[in-house]
UniProtKB/TrEMBL annotation:
This is SDR family oxidoreductase. InterPro entries: NAD(P)-bd_dom_sf (IPR036291), Sc_DH/Rdtase_CS (IPR020904), SDR_fam (IPR002347). PROSITE patterns: ADH_SHORT. Belongs to the short-chain dehydrogenases/reductases (SDR) family.
Amino acid sequence: MWAETVAVTGAGSGIGRAVLLAAAARGARVAALDVDEAAASAAALAALELGASEAVPVACDVSSEPSVVTAFDAVAAAVGDPGAVFANAGIEVNAPVHSFPVSSWERVVAVNLVGVFLTCREALRRLVATGRGGSVVCTSSPAAFVGHSGGGNSAYAASKGGVSAFVRSAALDYAPHGIRVNAVVPGATDTAMLTAGVASGARDAELDRIRAAATTQIPLGRLGRPDEVAAAVLWLLSEESSYVTGSHLVCDGGLMAKSANDF
C-alpha cells in the first residue's frame, strides 16, 4: 500500500495516465489532473478499478496560475496534500524557427515550462509546510540534451531544456527540507503525442514510419511503452529512490547513448 497521495498532471492520457494507474495498482490515493476534464474523470475511474484507495479527477490548465492553485486546493480537500507529484503535462508544436509563430512558441513554453514551475511551486509549498519531505518528478526529454533529427523542434527543446535546468536548481533548494526533485527522460514512446501535429488522416502512416525508424535507430529496436516509463517514474516517486535527487532517469531504449556516427 502506497502511503502518499500521488498527483499527476496530464493524467488523462499517455505517460501521465500510465503513472496514475501504476500508482493506483499499488493502492495509492491518486489525483488525476488534466485540461480535459472528461479524460481526467475516465482516468480516475480506471484508477479506482485498478485498486486506488481513493481517486479524484481535477480539471487543470497547468499554464494558468489560478487553475493550478485551485486544482491543488481541490486535491487537498478531496484526498489530502500530495506527497508525490508528477509534473508531466506537455504539448509539442513543431516548425522551423524562421516560420514559428510567436503565439505557438509562447504556448509551448507556457504549458511545458511555466506549467512545470506552477505545478512544482504548489506542490513544494505544501510539502515545505507539512515538513514531512516528499518527491517531485518532472518530465524532460532527450530534446533537452540533443538535437531532434525530425527538425522543427526548437520550442519543445527549449522548454524541456528549461525543465532540466529547473530540476537541478530546485533539487538543491529543497534537499534541506527532505524533498527530492528529479526528472524522467522518456524517449520515443507509443502515445498519441508521438504524432502530435500530424494530420489526422496521416496518423497511421506516420506511426508506421516512426515505428520503422525506431527499429533501425533506437538500440532496443522499438518504441517505448507508457507502462515502462511509468515504472521509472514510480521508482523516482517512491522511497526506493530515497537517495536520488537532482537526477535525470533516461528511459529511451538507448537512443541518447548512441553516437550519431555509425561506422
